[in-house]
């Protein structure tokens, strides 16, 4: 078993140019590898090229240059029926759900099965099983207009899952949903990933989504790959400006504090650590007080994530002790300098 | 009623219905596929094809901008060729159908345009081929709008049929003109007009109701 078997997608110098006025380079020389079984995030600001990128993964978008390999096959070389077959192994869900509004939940799922050539007699059972997975059994005969946004996305997931795909491509699948429902959908996707071993590719502009469920993430900025790696690594130590902009809490206004000559550090912690009164403990056990410049904790998918920007004491010795203390706890992110939007 | 019986009016009513219904059906047989082709070949759509779209669009636009009365006259030789005569109910079906085709095509095109691009995207992502995208996704999604359009087209064709009555077509329009207008039988004129109004009203309401009921 070589590594190759574990790679589901390999993008090799993928470039996409929209000719026209203005000429847009939507993807600029992107090379990434996506492992089977991962939840892979693709994050970037609006217009970064995320949708374009995900659409090259099932060739809804033709690449201008470079190659997309899906399970070792060059997508560009697939013709007609072969391409359609490959697309059936890659379910897709969208921000706007894209359900057939004139058809019931059941019929919406059935149409996917029909296209995949599943015989009529087998469809009802599969539909039932899919609805059970997404928890919508009682909505089988409802129309999309009778469903909430979260429920619609569940139907879309059931539809994408019905043909037993290897991967599910999600383009901003939770962006139209409120935070509570977002968590539910993310949990569902995580469950599908774990239990059915379906690779999931999540396009998003929200770091919280990536933190919640992704294993790895690619940061896209202006069509270029800014950074790629394990989510934890990028969250703790973002190297590119694009990643920093996404990782740092909004409007921290660090530049203001830098003027006071204090050293600032960013603390990053996961759910368990976040609950511990780290700052209070530092004060009680070491007698060192630090001031919190910004704190931002959020719960995504039931797991708390957070970060804090704190200013260290001016005393260098004390500052050092505090830094060591944070490092020991594994929450030390990095020293941050004057940085503004 | 001035020498004209109800059975005469009834016959006119049946002729009108025959003309309008058959013409509507024929117009849809050709106009529906034409509208589908117009819609899918349009820029940015499923089977984008500039040449096909432009040629069809020009034909449809020109034939739609010719006043129907002119159309009727111009088509007389063509009608003779097909039906053998240019007067009577059967003969009227030809210009009615021809006049309605471009109207139907545009109406169908507009209905299909209402179906969001996201649906097409989802269909393609599922691995549907173009024929499946059209028949399993776009058309079913457009059904309520298509029904609504059909109701409107039915009324338009009914109006045309009355016009056709003036130059030898059968039906209520012919009765209204020949007997009501030329021979000053105001009661005939009123009754035929009233019946036409009722058909328009019923057709419109029924169509809209079915469209509304079918929309989820
Ligand atoms: N069909 C197209 N023709 C021309 N330019 C396009 C087309 N589609 C996308 N673009 C451009 O390509 C760039 C990337 O677009 P894309 O939709 O991939 O961004 P995105 O990261 O998904 O943004 P968002 O978060 O707003 O969805 C943008 O500058 C966009 O204007
Ligand atoms: Mg997008």
Please give a structural write-up.
The complex is a heterodimer of chains A (341) and B (216). Chain A is an alpha/beta fold. In chain A, helix 3 crosses helix 4, helix 3 packs parallel to helix 5 and helix 5 runs parallel beside helix 6. The radius of gyration of chain A is 23 Å and the shape is globular. About 2% of the residues of chain A have low confidence. Chain B is built from nine helices and no strands. Chain B starts with 5 loop residues before the first helix and ends with a helix. In chain B, 44% of the residues are buried. Classes of the chains: A alpha/beta (341), B mainly alpha (216).
Q: Can you lay out the helices and strands and say which pair or pack?
A:
The complex is a heterodimer of chains A (341) and B (216).
Chain A: E1 7-18, E2 24-35, E3 39-44, H1 50-56, E4 65-70, E5 73-74, H2 80-88, E6 90-94, H3 105-115, H4 120-134, H5 149-161, E7 167-171, H6 179-196, E8 199-204, H7 207-213, E9 216-221, E10 224-230, H8 231-236, H9 241-247, H10 254-258, E11 264-269, H11 271-275, H12 278-286, E12 291-300, E13 303-311, H13 316-329, E14 332-336
Parallel strand pairs in A: 3-8, 3-9, 6-7, 7-8
Antiparallel strand pairs in A: 1-2, 1-4, 4-5, 9-10, 11-13, 11-14, 12-13
Helix pairs in contact in A: 3-4, 3-5, 4-5, 5-6
Chain B: H1 6-41, H2 50-65, H3 68-74, H4 76-83, H5 89-113, H6 117-125, H7 130-166, H8 171-182, H9 186-214
Helix pairs in contact in B: 1-2, 1-5, 1-7, 1-8, 2-5, 4-5, 5-7, 6-7, 7-8, 7-9, 8-9
Bound molecules: adenosine-5'-triphosphate and magnesium ion (MG).
| Quaternary structure | heterodimer
Number of strands of chain B: 0
Q: Major β-sheet of chain A, in short? A: 6 strands, mixed
Strand order of the largest sheet of chain A: 6-7-8-3-9-10
Q: Average pLDDT value of chain B?
A: 91
Distance between the termini of chain B: 48 Å
* Number of extended strands of chain A: 14
Order of helices and strands of chain B: HHHHHHHHH
Distance between the termini of chain A: 47 Å
The chain-level structural class of chain A is alpha/beta
Low-confidence stretches of chain A: 253-258
**What is the CA-based Rg of chain B, rounded?**
20 Å
């Amino acid at each position: 078993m070589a590594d190759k078997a574990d790679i589901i997608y390999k993008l090799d110098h993928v470039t996409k140019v929209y000719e026209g006025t203005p000429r847009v380079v939507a993807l600029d020389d992107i090379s990434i590898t996506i492992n089977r079984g991962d939840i892979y995030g693709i994050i970037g600001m609006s217009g970064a090229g995320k949708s374009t990128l995900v659409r090259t993964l099932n060739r809804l978008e033709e690449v201008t240059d470079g190659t997309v390999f899906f399970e070792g096959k060059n997508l560009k070389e697939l013709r007609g029926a072969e391409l359609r077959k490959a697309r059936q192994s890659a379910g897709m869900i969208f921000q706007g759900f894209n359900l057939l509004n004139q058809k019931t939940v059941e019929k919406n799922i059935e149409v996917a099965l029909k296209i995949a050539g599943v015989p009529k007699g087998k469809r009802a059972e599969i539909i039932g099983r899919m609805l059970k997975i997404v928890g919508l059994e009682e909505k089988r005969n409802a129309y999309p207009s009778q469903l909430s946004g979260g429920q619609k996305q569940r139907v879309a997931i059931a539809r994408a899952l019905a043909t037993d795909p290897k991967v599910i491509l999600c383009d901003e699948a939770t962006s139209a949903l409120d935070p509570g429902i977002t968590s539910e959908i993310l949990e569902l996707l995580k469950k599908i990933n774990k239990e059915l071993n379906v690779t999931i590719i999540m396009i998003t502009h929200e770091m919280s989504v990536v933190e919640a469920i992704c294993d790895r993430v690619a940061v896209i900025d202006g069509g270029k790959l800014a950074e790629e790696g394990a989510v934890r690594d990028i969250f703790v130590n973002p190297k590119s400006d694009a990643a920093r902009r996404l990782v740092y809490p909004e409007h921290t206004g660090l530049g203001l504090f830098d003027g006071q000559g204090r050293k600032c550090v960013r603390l990053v912690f996961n759910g368990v650590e976040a609950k511990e009164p780290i700052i209070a403990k530092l004060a009680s056990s070491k007698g060192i007080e630090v001031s919190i410049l910004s704190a931002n904790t959020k719960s995504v998918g039931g797991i708390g994530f957070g970060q804090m920007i704190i200013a260290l004491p001016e005393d260098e010795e004390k500052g050092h002790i505090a830094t060591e203390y944070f490092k020991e706890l594994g929450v030390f992110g990095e020293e941050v300098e004057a940085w503004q939007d | 009623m001035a020498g004209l019986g109800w059975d005469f009016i009834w016959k006119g009513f049946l002729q009108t219905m025959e003309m309008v219904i058959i013409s509507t059906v024929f117009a849809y047989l050709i106009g529906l596929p034409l509208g589908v082709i117009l819609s899918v070949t349009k820029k940015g759509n499923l089977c984008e094809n500039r040449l096909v779209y432009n040629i069809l669009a020009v034909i449809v636009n020109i034939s739609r901008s010719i006043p129907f009365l002119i159309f009727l006259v111009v088509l007389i030789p063509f009608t003779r060729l097909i039906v053998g005569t240019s007067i009577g109910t059967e003969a009227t079906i030809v210009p009615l159908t021809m006049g309605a085709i471009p109207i139907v095509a545009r109406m169908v095109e507009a209905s299909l345009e209402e179906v969001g691009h996201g649906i097409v995207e989802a269909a393609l992502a599922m691995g549907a081929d173009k024929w499946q995208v059209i028949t399993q996704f776009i058309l079913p999604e457009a059904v309520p709008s298509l029904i609504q359009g059909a109701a409107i087209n039915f009324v338009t064709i009914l109006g045309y049929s009355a016009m056709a009555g003036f130059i030898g077509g059968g039906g209520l329009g012919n009765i209204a003109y020949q007997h009501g207008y030329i021979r000053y039988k105001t009661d005939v004129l009123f009754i035929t007009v009233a019946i036409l109004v009722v058909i328009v009203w019923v057709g419109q309401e029924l169509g809209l109701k079915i469209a509304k009921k079918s929309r989820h």
